[in-house]
Amino acid sequence: MNATTAAATEGGSPSRLIDARIEELGDWRGETLARVRALIRQADPEVVEEWKWRGVPVWSHAGIICTGETYKAVVKLTFAKGASLADPSGLFNSSLDGNTRRAIDIREGDAIDEAALKDLIRAAVTLNLSAQARRKRG
Q1: What is the pLDDT along the chain (138 residues), one digit of tens a residue?
Q2: CATH (domain of 40)
Q3: Any idea what DSSP says for residue 99?
Q4: Strands 102-107 and 74-79
Q5: Across the chain, which distance is largest between two alpha carbons, in Å?
Q6: Which of 3, 36, 5 is nearest to 20 (CA)?
Q7: Shortest CA distance to 36 belongs to which of 47, 83, 54?
Q8: Residue numbers of the domain that contains 107
Q9: How far is it, in rounded angstroms, from Cα 122 to Cα 134?
Q10: Count of the separate structural domains present in the chain
């Protein structure tokens, strides 16, 4: 049983499950996931960490901001409403053809434009909050 499965079996909180995933990876992917997680928390101190779909870290604020999936060759940050976000720094490099989502694939050794990523996180939160306000008025 790996660390993530053990944490889930023990009824761990989403934050503990994400901690366990980072520890379990134990390589550049874990380091990258930990780094983007820290940047997300810095950009939005009110962010809620969730654990969905059998093991995907999710960050939300008035709706999903993004997910943090780990694959063999990439850490993928998928923004739920990425197609609606301005991306002046050109961070989105994956899932560019869809009408809703956009993703950032981070490969081993890639530099992360921290300021641009934080701006994207804040823009996603603003979009979620405006959608929530429209629903309440609606």
Answers
A1: 554 554 444 567 999 999 999 999 999 999 999 999 999 999 999 999 999 988 999 999 999 999 999 999 999 999 999 999 999 999 999 999 989 999 999 999 999 999 999 999 999 999 999 988 888 886
A2: 3.90.1150.200
A3: S
A4: antiparallel
A5: 48
A6: 3
A7: 47
A8: 3-137
A9: 18
A10: 1
